[in-house]
Amino acid sequence: MPHAPPLRALLSQYAAGSAVTCEPVDQGLLNRGYRLRTTRGHYFLKHHFDPETADPAAIARQHRATERLAVLGVPVAPPLPDRDGRTVAVVGGHSYALHPWIEGRHRHGGQLTPEQCGRLGALLGVVHASLERVMPVQGRVPGARNEACAGPQDRTPAPDADPRAGSADPAATCALIDDLLTRVRRHRPADSFDELARHRLLERRALLERHADRRPPRGGCVGWVHGDFHPFNLLYKGDAPAAIVDWDRLGVQPRAEEAVRAAAIFFVRPAGALDLPKVRAYARAYRRTAGATPSELTAAVHRVWWERLNDFWMLRWHYERGDTRADPQFPAASALVVWWTREYEAVCEAFAD
Hints:
Elements: H1 7-11, E1 19-25, E2 32-38, E3 41-48, H2 56-71, E4 89-91, E5 94-100, H3 114-134, H4 170-186, H5 192-211, E6 222-225, E7 234-237, E8 240-244, E9 251-254, H6 255-266, H7 276-290, H8 294-309, H9 313-320, H10 330-342, H11 344-352
Helix pairs in contact: 3-7, 4-5, 5-10, 6-8, 7-11, 8-11
């Protein structure tokens, strides 16, 4: 088995029995997961492989967060402690964690009823509100008022600060487009992906030139967020969410932007349009449980739209790294940007209604 984890050394640190079978879990772009069956039960073994998130201290922080969320009733799957009470096992310089195996399946927004879309939005709102209770934000003690949420556009920046700092620069994006177009032209043998990539790059450059004056200011109300809330990180048992998994991107970010990004993944149709009635049900429930305002969601829609307009991570993986795992997502994701630009007002209304 490729990348087989050191099961004997790992399990010697836990009271989990001896390995019987260990099967890779296919889903996931960054880290490696395994369904592990031992003489004492079934587990999910996670190999924290991505260099950006594999720091043992950061992993332990994620683990503490899920433990605290579980106490509040949030559906999560906290890691199991080893014999010494630690939740991160480092073997051969690699970090691992052992979790209970959660039976369930992933569900895309197209598989959810409007009522279930509302439950999804409410769940993310509960996650944000609960993280507000259990995690410090920028040195603030849990439960204290978050000054970053004090006004409709946050605090006034210093006079010499660029209010757009942190949002994508369209000039830099156009330079990236030129570089990617060169890579597309040089790719041999040319294929249908190259053809679609070229079309979308030229199309995106035209959109950027048309909308360059709409570059947004820095993000809004910040707090701890999951960081990667999408269908493959949420397990359902029947109609109810059973566990939110993969907390590698846990961090302090604008909360409403996570809500918009998640909706743009859950509710995008294959042709690249958002299912706006489902978005509306989801956003209403999110605002209610997170305490977010319609204007906060509208501002987040604009920032995430701009982010998507300038983002080419799938093409960079394909042409710069030779990594094609995200290729199946590219047709819908790239079409969504064009549709979102055309239907901008309708999208804002769906999130704010």
